[in-house]
Each structure stands twice: as structure tokens, then as C-alpha cells.
Design goal:
The protein has 219 residues and is an alpha+beta fold.
């Protein structure tokens, strides 16, 4: 019997471990096969909600926010590159010179969910930033990326020119903060089970199988 699980993937498009977590989750679902189906929704979380419009140099940002030395930052980049490569995701972190505000990207993701294209847009945004080194706060870039996954570029431009979905995104951000989510990725299954961080596929696979089995046989 096929079991459907609800998954809320709380994340930011400027979070590298969110990219790792997403491809890990999808790898786990491929391993499980048709026995478990999911209703996957991406929920907004801003790592840097007060980031200035022009962004900030990534090295300076990491040093200021986390106290990272250049050597620690280099080791972290290599760890991410290796984890990503093992999962089929390419991190070109040397091209990621700056970190940006992502609120408008989250507004587009909210709209994309209504259009049934949230997953491809999420992938496109992660690839644009971490693989291609593009600016996920730039309006023209966001409009172009929206078009590549089949969304209306005219409507994307209209959304970004105004404040459409701003209230909805902020409400969802606040909701998850109030639920105790202060770091991402946070993968919430059936509103009850939390998996934190960019876990390996094996961790997601085991959790999903256990939760699906419990739902089928609650006794």
C-alpha cells in the first residue's frame, strides 16, 4: 500500500546545507520507491533578513557571523563540494563572492507553489547561486530563472515590482520561528517529526520508512 507523507522543507536559497539536504531527501525517496509518496512544500526561512540590498562579501560575512577563519572557511567549502558531488550537485563556491537577501526569492517560491512549480524553481534558484554564482536578490535574474521553469516572466516581474505574497511569506517565517526553527534545513514530516541539517540519504530513508510504517500501523 502506498503511503503519502506531508513534508515541509524549511530552508533558504542562500543556505548550502539546504541544497545538500534537498538532494539527499530526493535520493532517499528514489531509494524507497513508490511505497512512499510525499507532498513536499518549501517553507521560507531567511538566514540574513536584514542584509543590505547590495549584499555582503561572503568571507567577511562568515568571519563576522560565525568567527570563521580563512582556513576554516576553506575546509567548509571543500566539505560542501565533496558532499554535493557525491549527491550530484555541483558547488562552485569560489564563484559565490557575496551573500544576499533572499526575501524576493521566497515570494516567488510562494507563488510557484500555487502554480505547481515550486520544486523546479527551488532547484533552479539553488543552482543559480551555488553552481553559477548568480545573485538571488536581483530582479532580472529572478525573472529569468522563473521563466526557465515554465513560470510567466510577466507575472514574476509584476510580483517583484510590488508586494504580492510578502505578508504570506512573513507569516510563514514567523510561524516556523515560533515553532522553534532557528536553523535550516529543517525537514518536518506530518507536522510532527523533525529532521535537522543536511543529512545523508540514509538518514532520510530510515526516518521516512519508519514514519510511513507507523502511520500504516499506528498500533
Amino acid at each position: 500500500m502506498t503511503q503519502t507523507l506531508k513534508i515541509d522543507f524549511v530552508s533558504d536559497v542562500s543556505c548550502p546545507w539546504c541544497a545538500v539536504g534537498l538532494v539527499s531527501l530526493q535520493s532517499a525517496l528514489t531509494r524507497i520507491g513508490p511505497a512512499v509518496q510525499v507532498e513536499l512544500t518549501f517553507q521560507p526561512f531567511e538566514l540574513n533578513p536584514t542584509m543590505v540590498v547590495e549584499g555582503e562579501d561572503i568571507a567577511q560575512h562568515l568571519a563576522k557571523k560565525y568567527g570563521s577563519t580563512p582556513e576554516q572557511a576553506a575546509a567548509s567549502r571543500e566539505n560542501l563540494r565533496s558532499r554535493g558531488a557525491a549527491l550530484g550537485f555541483t558547488f562552485n563556491l569560489d564563484q559565490r563572492a557575496r551573500i544576499y537577501n533572499t526575501f524576493n526569492a521566497h515570494r516567488l517560491l510562494h507563488w510557484a507553489r500555487l502554480e505547481g512549480l515550486q520544486l523546479p524553481l527551488k532547484h533552479a534558484l539553488l543552482t543559480a547561486y551555488f553552481t553559477d554564482g548568480e545573485n538571488p536578490s536581483d530582479t532580472a535574474t529572478l525573472v529569468r530563472i522563473a521563466g526557465t521553469v515554465g513560470l510567466s516572466t510577466q507575472r514574476a516581474q509584476e510580483i517583484l515590482n510590488g508586494d504580492a505574497y510578502a505578508a504570506e511569506v512573513r507569516a510563514q517565517e514567523l510561524f516556523y520561528q515560533q515553532q522553534g526553527i532557528h536553523s535550516v534545513p529543517a525537514v518536518i514530516i506530518n507536522d510532527r517529526h523533525l529532521i535537522s541539517g543536511g543529512q545523508p540519504p540514509e538518514v532520510f530513508e530510515q526516518a521516512l520508512r519508519q514514519i510511513a510504517a507507523a502511520v500504516m500501523d499506528p498500533g
